[in-house]
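Quick illustration, no need to memorize.
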Amino acid sequence: MTKLAIPLASLIVGTACSSAGSSEDEGPLTHSTGAAPKEVTITATDHAFEAPDTVQAGWNTFRLVNHGEQIHEATLVQLEDGRTLQEYMQAYGEAVRTGGARPEWARFLGGISGVQPHGDGLATLYLEPGNHAWGCWAPDSDGTPHLLGHDQIHAFEVPRTSADAPAVSAPEPTVSVGMHDYAFELSEPLKAGKHVVRVENTGVEPHHVLIFKLGPGRTLEDFQAWIQNHMQGEAPSTYIGGMATQSFGVEGYLTLDLPAGDYILVCLVAGRDEVPHFAKGMIEHVRVE
């Protein structure tokens, strides 16, 4: 079973609390020379998503607009051929009730993590033809993910692309973050300013990356003590953004604006052994000049 190590109700951010496991399938994550990705808007309220019922295959930039009064996220799930959203909800709900493994026929493609009320966030993701869904794993006060407590999940179809469809390119990244078992790897030092961050999971286990800016005088040790205390008390940091859970071989792109300062990259996912990935070394202090 894959899940978040720590309930995130006190974190002011929700992220996918499970993933598809160690799928060996890699998506067609090729970069072509073509047009910029189309922007698709997803609107979250406290009980629903408003989103298109069909989205084109290939690269798309998704904007999550939060009109609710709670934190929301939009995590993209690709369902295996022949599987339906109803099957997924039944299987996932049963796994949550029993503590069993999540459905291995659902693949997580990342998404927009932890958007504040009346805020928005961007992520560019690759879609293959087939059945997909947006889900919100942000928790209620009792820890129940919104997709279960409020049915906050929206199914959509990605039709096959016609041969004459225009080519669409992935964004040009300013920096890349590799997620391994169990470490982050930056392609180069981060500089202050706007970034397109390429995030790829090359680890066997599912991972996400959450980005926090440390407060003045606060340290990595302060942050570690805070998360080990289940994020109780005053936070030593401010949440900036993140890429929701990705299965093996998935990549995506985040759009972020980073002021100078000290940051923490962290993965809060826990695997079948119940040990959170940050406890295995998947936490890193980064200085942005």
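Confidence is low (pLDDT under 50) at residues 5-32.
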